[in-house]
Amino acid sequence: MGLEEITNRSLQYSSGRQVCNDFVSLTQEWLRKLQAVSSLRGYFRETNRSELAAFISYAMSFPTQFQALVDTFDVLRSGIPNFCAVALALNELGYKSLGIRLDSGDLAYLSNETRKFFCIVEDEFAVTGFKELIITASNDIKEETIDALNKQGHEVDSFGIGTHLVTCSAQPALGCVYKLVEINKHPRMKLSQDIEKVTIPCKKEAFRLYGIEGYALLDIMKGENELAPKEGQRLLCRHPFSESKRAYVVPQRVEQLFKCFWAGNSGLPQEPLPSLTEIRERCKAQLKAMRSDHLRGLNPTPYKVSVTASLYEFIHSLWLSEAPVGELR
């Protein structure tokens, strides 16, 4: 989460003859040098410190294989400057970084701007080969995507193709990614130019709210310390990211969705795992509780997943505190 959490700060030179006693400070020094370059001031001012700490930690573990995913917060205002600072520090110790990966946003624009950034760094600091660092692009890449990028013009060197290589449209894949929402009781969230990739921070509890007709109206998430929704009690439900999408709901039945089946060392009460028959019957019951328009094959009505008003306010407060502020000139 921060540079202060990096306890072992030493890194051996690639030659093996010397040791840099404080690689963290060396990286910070390079970041200050980048901030002082006049031609880069239009790109960024301050970068995200937790991202910088993550890049440094990774580089110290894999100094010969340093490649960074740069779109966790903001590609050009944070990810690329942080990567360059670490890469320049590694270069001072005799290591050459591999490059960066883009996994969201306008891949043509971001790759072109990234290459410009690399060229400025090489010219400004006389680091041979920096402008040739590899730019990799992913994010559901398919043939049409590559064709469109080629027509627009881009600086991508390699494409990470997974989903569309091993699946077909008749049997599509369900894309699920595990993201941390809390570290040492500090809420964390991933930011992205693609709104569907922005995560909802902190520990949460989820409930399914049912209406008068017995159908599920929506699922709602609340913070761990908030009161649970109750039957017959009006509740404001909000879309996590769209300010205008909100509704009051008076649930006739409330079902808690999270149950603990694997407690580990948490000390929480643990429920016995259901049998296959029980799982099958629950699945059937849940499908019966859904309106038919949610289940139709063509143009189904999206099922709503909401957050409480308190969680909505917290999400956007943390978002503003984590997102780097740009500067236009």
Automatic annotation (TrEMBL):
The alphabetized UniProt keywords are:
Ligase, Phosphoprotein, Pyridine nucleotide biosynthesis
Q: Name one GO cellular component term.
A: cytosol
Tell me the SUPFAM superfamilies matching this sequence.
Answer: Nicotinate/Quinolinate PRTase C-terminal domain-like (SSF51690)
Quote any Pfam family the record assigns.
NAPRTase
Q: Which reaction does it catalyse?
A: 5-phospho-alpha-D-ribose 1-diphosphate + nicotinate + ATP + H2O = nicotinate beta-D-ribonucleotide + ADP + phosphate + diphosphate
Q: What is its EC number?
A: 6.3.4.21
Q: What's an example of a GO molecular-function annotation for this chain?
A: nicotinate phosphoribosyltransferase activity
Q: Which domain of life is it from?
A: Eukaryota
Which ranges carry the Nicotinate phosphoribosyltransferase C-terminal domain?
A: 203-314
A biological process (GO) of this protein is: NAD+ biosynthetic process via the salvage pathway
Q: What class of enzyme is it?
A: ligase
What positions does the domain Nicotinate/nicotinamide phosphoribosyltransferase occupy? 98-199
Identify the metabolic or biological route this protein is part of. Answer: Cofactor biosynthesis; NAD(+) biosynthesis; nicotinate D-ribonucleotide from nicotinate: step 1/1
PANTHER family membership: NICOTINATE PHOSPHORIBOSYLTRANSFERASE
Q: Which family does it belong to?
A: Belongs to the NAPRTase family.
Name of the protein in its database record:
nicotinate phosphoribosyltransferase
- Which species expresses this protein natively? Ceratopteris richardii
